[in-house]
Amino acid sequence: MSLSINAFIEAIIAAGLQPPSHIEPEIICRFPGNGKGRSNKSGWCILFSDGLGGCFGDWSAGFTQSWRSNDTFVMSCFEKQAWKNKVSDARRLEAKLRQERQNKAAAKAARLWGLSQHLSPNNPYVIRKNIQPFGARE
Could you tell me where the beta strands, DSSP code E, fall in 37-98? Predict the structure, then answer.
């Protein structure tokens, strides 16, 4: 299995991403996207439980790729369909998790916006900068 994980990591690096130091099969791992800071989590990967394939990508770049440990292996029609199903399932799971994160972030933003108040024209910053608040909130 460790050879598969190493080959998977090499494929992620070859695609221009910096993978996490530890990849657990069947768990979506999050890591910084291409050229992003350490707190960014737009990069993702999932190694299938058998270690023979997986998917990875970068949400911020709109990039996804599937990977197989042995691309030269000729698959039967049944194996090809099973592979396509695994890739589709992984991509659906990734999209579901991304949507859940986006919904959570939107709810937090709406809550914070609802708690904020219009910036007063008497606010020290507004006065110091000699500007109008123009609907700004704090």
Answer: 43-47, 53-58, 63-68
Percentages helix, strand, coil for the chain (3-state, rounded to 5) are 45, 15, 40
Instruction: Say if residues 39 and 49 touch (Cβ distance below 8 Å).
Output: no
**47: β partners:** 54
By the 8 A CB rule, do 36 and 19 touch? no
pLDDT digits (tens, 9 = 90+) for 18-75: 998 889 888 889 999 888 888 888 899 999 888 888 999 998 888 888 898 876 567 7
Cβ atoms of 129 and 92 within 8 Å: the answer is: no
Q: Which ranges constitute the DSSP H helices of 15-76?
A: none
